[in-house]
Recover the amino acids of this structure.
């Protein structure tokens, strides 16, 4: 069996999870900031990727990152390469889809922190950055782990956006001329290689279950302290 | 030995606090009914809430002067605040809770100093344990040790003993009475209990509807006849 689509999916999902976690945690902190102007509008904008069809999001990404776009030209000027139809595009697509899930999970974790704990840290002389590093983030850890788990799962299963911005189907020079598992399965089915599609589907499912079990155990351990 | 001198007003909708008071080193008990502004007063002194106008001075240090645009951030005021719910960090051991505020102490000396403080308040054996395993009295003692560890210039106690039984409360009131003179700084203690104020207070400030209605020595301000 060809394992490379699964490894490619793992690579994309892992990197996307890290990016989504950093950006999503930052956005969740922004949402719980009491001085945030127009909080409802900001929250709605952050959640938009959840309600848009993946193909619509993919279309936006395709437009934003295309070689002739501002970002595409700036990237080409900096690196000499393109974003679209590359590994980077797959990571960006998976990250964009995962961010709202991370924001939701981390915000639940942040909302559960007793405000007096943060006030106590400040009265003990901690700067805002130290309060964040030593009290806020450790106490929100269960939410952050849950967010990471959701981001990874979302990134591993992304099909629509990845298909639009990083699939080799577009012009044959996609991600290392390979596809991540979600696209590989449908490609194999279309090519009437049902055994290969089934094996990849089962392998992806088992991988997802194992990772979810591990993440749940980690969350429980953190909650027990 | 610096006096705390505060004059400020804060209004939030229907609720308002407009006070002018002085707390010399020693224990000042702030008393009043629920909603009289006791907790707001502590929040403003700590810098957790900013009043609409006013000044707060500790000796020569100006912590707040709205007219001149001065507002020293909470983390630069060097104060100790024991919250009603204690707010011990649940993810840290008792020792780590106590060392958390020791900015002035060299890193190498923090653990030994924290252990000595925990021993002093009678909970040295809990140093490596986390707060969820503490009884109410033990948690109070750890919170007191944490408050004292940062060599504060001002101590704020927000009804820290309200959830304890009478015997434990008497023990801890005795502990605070013992520690206050050693600190040599103003200790502002919010309480509902006249009995507690009688045992603790060098001075009493009585609040009603956000205003100081009486201020002075306990015998001059409070009516202890109900306790006889």
């Amino acid at each position: 069996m060809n394992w490379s689509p699964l490894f490619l999916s793992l690579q994309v999902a892992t990197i996307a999870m890290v990016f989504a976690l950093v950006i999503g945690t930052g956005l969740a902190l922004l949402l719980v900031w009491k001085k945030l102007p127009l909080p409802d509008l900001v929250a709605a904008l952050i959640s938009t990727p959840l309600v848009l069809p993946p193909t619509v999001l993919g279309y936006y990404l395709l437009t934003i990152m295309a070689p002739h776009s501002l970002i595409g030209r700036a990237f080409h000027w900096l690196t000499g390469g393109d974003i679209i139809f590359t590994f980077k595009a797959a990571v960006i697509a998976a990250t964009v889809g995962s961010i709202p899930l991370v924001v939701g999970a981390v915000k639940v974790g942040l909302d559960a922190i007793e405000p007096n704990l943060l006030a106590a840290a400040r009265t003990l002389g901690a700067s805002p950055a130290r309060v964040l590093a030593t009290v806020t983030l450790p106490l929100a850890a269960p939410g952050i782990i849950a967010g990471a788990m959701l981001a990874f799962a979302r990134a591993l299963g992304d099909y629509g956006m990845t298909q639009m911005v990083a699939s080799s189907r577009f012009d044959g020079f996609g991600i290392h001329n390979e596809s991540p598992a979600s696209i590989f399965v449908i490609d194999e089915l279309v090519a009437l290689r049902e055994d290969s599609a089934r094996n990849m589907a089962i392998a992806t499912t088992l991988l997802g279950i194992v990772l979810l079990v591990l993440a749940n155990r980690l969350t429980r351990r953190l909650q027990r302290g | 030995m610096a006096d705390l001198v505060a004059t400020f007003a804060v209004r939030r909708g229907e609720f308002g606090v407009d006070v002018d008071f002085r707390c010399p080193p020693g224990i000042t008990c702030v008393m009043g009914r629920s909603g009289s502004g006791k907790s707001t007063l502590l929040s403003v002194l700590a810098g957790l809430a900013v009043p609409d106008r006013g000044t707060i001075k500790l000796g020569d240090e100006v912590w707040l002067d709205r007219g001149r645009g001065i507002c020293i951030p909470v983390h630069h005021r060097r104060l100790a605040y024991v919250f009603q719910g204690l707010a011990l960090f649940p993810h840290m051991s008792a020792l780590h809770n106590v060392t958390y505020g020791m900015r002035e102490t060299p890193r190498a000396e923090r653990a030994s100093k924290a252990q000595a403080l925990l021993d002093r308040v009678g909970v040295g054996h809990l140093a490596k344990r986390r707060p969820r395993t503490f009884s109410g009295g033990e948690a109070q003692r750890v919170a007191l040790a944490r408050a004292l560890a940062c060599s504060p210039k001002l101590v704020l106690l927000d009804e820290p003993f309200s959830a304890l039984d009478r015997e434990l409360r008497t023990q801890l009131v005795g502990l605070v009475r013992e520690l206050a003179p050693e600190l040599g700084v103003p200790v502002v203690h919010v309480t509902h209990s006249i009995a507690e104020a009688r045992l603790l207070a060098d001075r009493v400030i009585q609040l009603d509807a956000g205003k100081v209605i009486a201020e002075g020595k306990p015998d001059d301000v409070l009516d202890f006849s109900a306790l006889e």
User: Anything to note?
Assistant: The interface with chain B takes residues 114, 116-117, 119-128, 134-135, 138-139, 225 of chain A (CB under 8 Å).
